[in-house]
Amino acid sequence: MDFGDKTVLITGAGQGIGEACAHVFAERGARLILLDKNGKTLPKVVERLAGKDGNVIARIIDLTHTEPLARLITEITQDIHIDILINNAGFDRPGVTAKIGKKEFNTVLGIHIGVPFLLSKWLLPGMRARKWGRIVNISSVYGVLGAKGEVAYATAKSGIIGLTKTLAREGGPDGVTVNAIVPGLIRTPPIIRMPDKYKEPIIAQTILGRIGEPEEIARVAAFLASNDASFITGTTITVSGGWGI
């Protein structure tokens, strides 16, 4: 998996799965474009990447603000063509259907579906013109199973699977593959903060009996972005230790 001639854009790169993806792709020589709204964590990621192969462009930006994001993508793509897009950024607004507000619901859909839609809308045409490209979307087991108290998050993560399959049909004839990863319980900052009373039942339902590591998702993303996965598109790969299968 040599990405020495490829540029990868990773959203939500300031921590968790996004940071792990940055390290995995950097180790394989890719040029990185890292986007995150957290001005404290993203610079630290860049520092930790020092000395690894590849080079890094990092931008602090709220991805849900469409016009600044559009300007940034236009600026970047004037000189660089993006070969690989990792749609990872997201956040949660817990709530059951009867209580969550429309604004909160739409906010979650905006980051998990709206941003991947826009980035794919802007970058897919260039990939198709070059006859090569990779889009990897990060979903969730909750998007497959549903989850009580997570109506917005589960709906959004289910929607990204539909977007994945549609983009795969659009990009496939021109050599662009689009796939989704469905993580289980992964050791990201939100999960680390989750009380044990919520984590332990999930671990008990996980065949491997443990929480997954962000690198275990990142390595699957790298595989899907590589030529080794050239005949895989429009699919979901569950990386959950056996939870939710």
Question: Which key features would you list for this structure?
Answer:
alpha/beta, 245 residues, Rossmann fold, globular, seven-stranded parallel beta sheet
Task: Describe the secondary structure blueprint for this structure.
Elements: E1 7-11, H1 16-27, E2 31-36, H2 41-49, E3 56-60, H3 66-77, E4 84-87, H4 102-130, E5 133-138, H5 142-145, H6 151-171, E6 176-183, H7 189-193, H8 196-204, H9 214-225, E7 236-239
Parallel strand pairs: 1-2, 1-4, 2-3, 4-5, 5-6, 6-7
Can you describe what's shown?
The radius of gyration is 17 Å and the shape is globular. It has a single domain, classed as NAD(P)-binding Rossmann-like Domain (Rossmann fold, 3-Layer(aba) Sandwich), CATH 3.40.50. It is built from nine helices and seven strands; from the N terminus they run βαβαβαβαβααβαααβ. A seven-stranded parallel β-sheet has the order 3-2-1-4-5-6-7, with helices on both faces. It has helices at residues 16-27, 41-49, 66-77, 102-130, 142-145, 151-171, 189-193, 196-204, 214-225, and strands spanning 7-11, 31-36, 56-60, 84-87, 133-138, 176-183, 236-239.
Helical proportion, percent range: 40-55%
Q: What is the N-to-C succession of helices and strands?
A: EHEHEHEHEHHEHHHE
CATH class: Alpha Beta
- Give the strand line-up of the largest sheet: 3-2-1-4-5-6-7
Outline of the structure:
With 245 residues, the chain is an alpha/beta fold. It has helices at residues 16-27, 41-49, 66-77, 102-130, 142-145, 151-171, 189-193, 196-204, 214-225; strands at residues 7-11, 31-36, 56-60, 84-87, 133-138, 176-183, 236-239.
